[in-house]
Each structure stands twice: as structure tokens, then as C-alpha cells.
Please model this.
Amino acid sequence: MKHEDLKGTWAMDRSVQWPSTKRDERSETALEHGLESAASIRDRKIPLFNRSGGGFSNSGRMLGAPFLEDMRELGGQDVAFIGVPLDTGTTYRSGTRFGPEAMRRISSLGSSYNPEIGVDLVETLNAVDVGDVSVIPANIEKSFDQVAKAIGYLTERSVFPVVLGGDHSIGYPDVMGMSPYVDGNIGIIHFDRHSDLSEFNMDERMHGTPFFHATNIPNAPPQNLVQIGIGGWTGSRDGLRIARDRRATVITLEDVDQFGIDKVAEYALDIAWRNAKAVFISFDIDCMDPAFAPGTGTPEPGGFLPRELLKMIRMVSREGIAGLEVVEVAPPYDVADITSLLGVRVIQSVLAEVVLSGQIGKMPELKPPEGGESTMGG
Ligand SMILES: [Mn+2]
Model:
């Protein structure tokens, strides 16, 4: 057996002879359309927004919204769906890198019209899907830089970001990205079974840490942070201590049971909007009971029920919001796509409410029903 007889040797020789013309062209276009990455990325061929459609970024389109190929054309749209396929920040079961893909896929179920709410999202919103942020799975800090830059790009152009996560570590760069463009304080309404307020998990900034770092941002003070749904046996003592030290507001599920969703929503709005100019909603799918949302990395029994949650998420959106993230959807543990579907329905519910309250989009002029104001009852 000789070196030159090996198929491997043949393949090595062939590998340097292949042209790269089309590949180079593609990557040049991807860079042009996907914009320059954050300064910390050494390989300058990696764009900010992934245009490749490859790997875990082969996503389709959210709710049938057109794909915006050239990010230089962003501006004037009401909403941008943006995927962050990251699970580097998970501390137990990973898999959220497939969250954006799964939510986009199952979002094709339905027409974006809801007779109960009375909103047709297709008719009222000018929405685009901008694809995924190019995250760097081996380096969470570089991924944060990419996410913050991408969200900043959307916010600067006044396009409402709907972030498809991704693990919850992205809560920090999401708020970071929008913070320079908000002329005042940002309140955060955070749905979760977990505090996510530790400084570090295992020596790094991971998915149990976003709100420690987000509330260090000068215009995102912890006094405007409201956490709803906290509780269960994956709780963090450290997180509760930090919430106490920083005067954040923690609302457990027992609180929700005792006071009811109307009062809790009202209270949450009051805290989040106090001296604030904008409110961001961070929605961790694990605030739901795992019976309804098994597809997540750190499930905790005893969470929200879909009917109460879908109602409550609209209540806290009615004053308008500056952005929404739905995180921790982990399709490898899902059953029949029910977790991804719930994530999509949360997004649609929030969008419907901000359309109804006149914050984004435009409701058409609709005639009142025939025969008076209401045909109900009697
Ligand atoms: Mn959680």
C-alpha cells in the first residue's frame, strides 16, 4: 500500500483543484445582504444576519411573512421576526437552537386571523422575516455581541423586534441592543418559572443570568423588572436574594392564583411602566406547565395554563411594547409540536393586542354589526 494509491490522497489533490467561484459569489452576497458582524468576530466573512439557509438556520418564514433577503432594505416595516438559534447558554438540556426553525414551521398552522380577538394580522401588519442572527455556538460572548448589534439595527430603524429564541441568555443582548435607542428607562415584564438573576452560571453568563446583566444597563433599572410565574423546585436562592437587593418585583404562581390575572397584569404594568419610556416582554416558555409545554430544557411542574396565559399576555401588552422575545423552546423534547405552537400563539396574541391598542400596524375601518351595538344575550 502506497500513499499515492489511497483514495484519501486523490481526494486531497482534487480538493485544491475545485473552483470556488460560485461559493465566493454567494458569500459576498450573503455579507452584503446580511451586513457586517460585530467587532469581536474575527472571521469577517461571517455576516450579522445569516443568509445561508443552512444548518440550524434553515428556517422558512414566520407566519408566512416575506423573507427580507437584503437587510439594507430594513425600515418602514411594522414587525421583524428574527431568529436567534442559540443553546450555548443552557445549563441542563440543550436544543433551543432549533427553536426558531420549529416555531416558523408550525406557524404555518392557521391564517393569522382570530375571531375571538377580532384581528387579522396579515391585513393589519407589515411584517417581514429577517432570518436568523449568525450566532457563534462556541462563544456566548461573541453571540451576545451579534445579537445586540442585530437588535440594535432593528430598533434603530423603528421596526418592532419579535425574537424567536434561543435560550434565555439572549434576554441580556436583546435589552442591550435596544437600550441606546430608547430615550429613557426600559421596563421588563418577564414570564418564567426561574429568576434568571444570577451573575454567572458555572463561571459564565448563561441562561440563568440575563436579568442580572440586563438590569446593570443604566436605562434598564431593576425597579422596572417584574417577574411573573416564579416558583418550583428549580428555583434559585441566589436569584431571589438578588431580586431583593435590587428591589425587583417577583410574582409567584401562588400570587397569580391568589390575586387573579387581571390584578396581577395591572400591577405588572404599573411597575414596568413606572418612569419608563418602553417595556420589553421576555417570555420563557417554561412558565407554562410542562403538560402543555414539554419541549423545554428546564421544565418545572405547576406552571401557567394556556388559557389563562394567553389572556394575561395580552393584558400586559396593551400599553404597547418595544419588543418581545419567546425563548427556551427546545424542539428535541417536544411532543407533536405543542410547545412550539404555544410559542407562536403567544407571539400572535401579543401582536394582536398591540395592533388593537393602536401601537403598531393599522386596523382597517370596520362597520359596527347590524342591529345595534351588540347582538349578544337576550
Ligand atoms: Mn425558565
